Amino acid sequence: MSDDLHEIETEARPWEAYDSTVAATGFFAMLRYLPRLCGQVLRLAWSTSRVDTAALIGLTAVAEALTGVGLLATNSVFEGLLIDGPSPERVRAALPGLTLLVVSVVIRGVLRQGAHWAQARLSPQLQRAVETRMLGLVTQVELVAFDDGTFHDRLHRCRQRAGGTVYSLLRIAVDLLGCVAGFAAIAGALTVLHPILLPLLVLAVIPSAWAAVRSARLYYQMVIGFSGANRRMETLGDLMTERSSAAEVRSYTMRPFLLGEWERLSRHVQAADLAIEKRRATAQAAGSALAAVGTAVIFAALGLLLYTGRMPLAAAGTAVIAIRAAINVLTQATQVINYGYENGLFYQDYLDLCAEAEQRRMRDGGVEPPADLDRISVRDVTFTYPGAEEPALNGVSLEIASGEIIALVGENGSGKTTLAKVIAGLYEPASGDVTYGGVSARLIDLDGLRGHTAVIAQNFTRWPFTARQNITIGRFDHPDAVGQFERAASASGAAEVFARLSKGAETLLDPSYKGGTELSGGQWQRIAVARGLFRDAPLLICDEPTASLDAKTEHAIFESIRRHAVQRTVVLITHRLASVRYADRIFVLDGGRVVEQGTHAELMALAGIYAQFYSLQASAYQEVSPL
Questions:
Q1: Spatial distance between the Cα atoms of 162 and 165, rounded to a whole number of angstroms
Q2: How many angstroms separate the CA atoms of 261 and 263, rounded?
Q3: What order of strands is seen across the sheet that includes strand 539-543?
Q4: Which residue numbers delimit the ABC transporter domain (predicted)?
């Protein structure tokens, strides 16, 4: 378990560690923040669909403004019904106001339905725009970002909430607009009835607003504080439910351990959740009690105005309806503000992720890769992973000539794979430089560099596509796609895999879909080798390319790579030293440094680390006398 996760799990009140993040969540700060947030969402909606956005805003504003018309019509009805005279005359006097009231209610209902339709059209477009932007940016960030736990946590939260958050914020922005328009209409009516009613009404709902803000702040602190623990729980849940791990869960009887870990985390998060909910409930109860007192004051003031004759009875009846409507609108507004502030904080997470992804995005542009790109010089390169105390590479220097086959050898953690990724342009060194044909990697267009590089990795991706697509992925526009595909499949042994599949190379390689199938580890390894060979690149990097293959197939694959490497540069990483003895040069890494280099014969004569490793492996194949 990492130290960061341990700290998250054992901190008594982890949400308090994020007080600085939400320091500006007071009432007035929220009032300043939320309109700006709603403006951002509405601008995003406008850029997505102007017609739907204009219809949504216009219909909502007009519909809620009709509330004031309805109140004036209600007052007219009361005045007509309360005049002196027989009932028929009072009904006739009230009829114009009643007609206006009915018409306003009908029109308001039609406009609201139109606004709902516009919002239903706009919401999925907004979700798609937000998620497309997020995925577009995240797939362009530098590779090292995925080694950063903080970036991972934020990405995890945004993947779960970004689409739903923008949908909620659109609805919140519209509801808030409706509340403002409705309250403005009611406020106008109340001001006409008596000026004192409006400020009294506002004072009554301030406690509810405070409770809403307090509740939102507590909830956000909890979610942020436990995002790492929740991500860990999701990982454990995947391990217990995914097909890829099902066999080992059973064969290693891991069920008790995984369930125990999941339950321990869930109990910890649940306990904190209950503590937060208790504090939220207390704040909401206090706010509701104070709001009830404020409402009583309003009605007491209304009664006093009636008692002293400062307000007509018809106006008083209208005021009662207006006050109830205003309380409903302001209660809805506080709920909207509460929900909006919560979602606004998560939306800010999304904006922060996009901003960080922009800052960490891979460099665009630069000079075209040189013709002799496979002439590589690594000069005093240092690289440290995020959060690590020691560098993975420390002052590494080496030269690779065009068409040369070199091998990187060393124990696990010695820096072999990191160095290969630096050479491939996937990691940018903290110091030092890598040049290709004399041109610095910092000046070369990275997409162009990677277009001239093929990587065959031990931990390759098993794409849920057809076998053919798994090999041609990223190079569908190859000028000789059919011929190159056949050559790569033959050289890697993937053609033998196709022959056993129901639809050959067109078979879907994912058993979780209908018609899909699964391959063995060795079969997948051949697909991965074919993928690298298909790119037909001048620089080929092989990181444990035969780890899942038997000795016979491994020998055949290395022979194919050796044939394929004619006039190409190959960087080979493998623990099986018998496969590297024919490399032009071998570099031995230890603790992130190159400690030995030379040919196989030279290193054996040196009697150093390489000779020790090679002798240990060779001894395993020598005959041993039976006991």
A1: 5
A2: 6
A3: 453-457, 539-543, 569-573, 405-409, 585-590, 593-598
A4: 376-616
Reference 46, options 122, 132, 99; nearest CA is 122
Lookup: tokens for 74: 């209600």
What is the Cα 259 distance to its own chain's centre? 26
Please state, in angstroms and rounded to a whole number, the distance separating the CA atoms of residues 89 and 83. 9
Collapsed DSSP state (helix, strand, coil) of residue 593: strand
Other CB atoms closer than 10 Å to residue 475's CB: what's the count?
18
Evaluate whether 410 touches 416 at the Cβ level (below 8 Å): yes
Q: How sure is the predictor about 585, in pLDDT bands with cuts at 50, 70 and 90?
A: very high
Within the chain, all domains assigned CATH 3.40.50.300 are found at 366-452+556-620, 453-536
Q: List Cβ<8 Å contacts ≥24 apart for 2-8.
A: 2/149, 4/149, 4/228, 4/387, 5/228, 5/229, 5/232, 8/225, 8/226, 8/228, 8/229
pLDDT, the chain, mean: 80
For residue range 440-486, what is the model confidence (pLDDT) as tens digits? 988 998 888 888 888 888 788 888 899 999 998 877 666 677 888 99
Q: Tell me how far apart the alpha carbons of residues 223 and 290 are, in angstroms, rounded to a whole number.
A: 28
Instruction: Give yes or no for a contact between 408 and 571, defined as CB atoms under 8 angstroms apart.
Output: yes
CA angle, 320 as apex, 319 and 326 as ends, to 5°? 80
Residue 152 near residue 231 (C-beta atoms within 8 A)? yes
Query: Which fold is adopted by the domain 453-536?
Result: Rossmann fold (3.40.50)
Q: What's the CATH superfamily of 3-46+119-359?
A: ABC transporter type 1, transmembrane domain (1.20.1560.10)
Instruction: Please give the distance of CA 56 from its chain centroid, rounded to a whole number.
Output: 29
Q: Which CATH number fits domain 366-452+556-620: 3.60.40.10, 3.40.50.1980, 3.40.50.300, 3.90.780.10?
A: 3.40.50.300
The pLDDT confidence band at residue 2, using thresholds 50, 70 and 90, is: very low
* Chain segment 54-106, per-residue pLDDT in tens: 999 899 888 888 877 777 777 677 766 666 666 677 677 778 877 888 888 89
Per-residue tokens: 498: 């196709």
Which residue, among 594, 585, 593, 583, has the nearest Cα to 558 in the 3D structure? 583
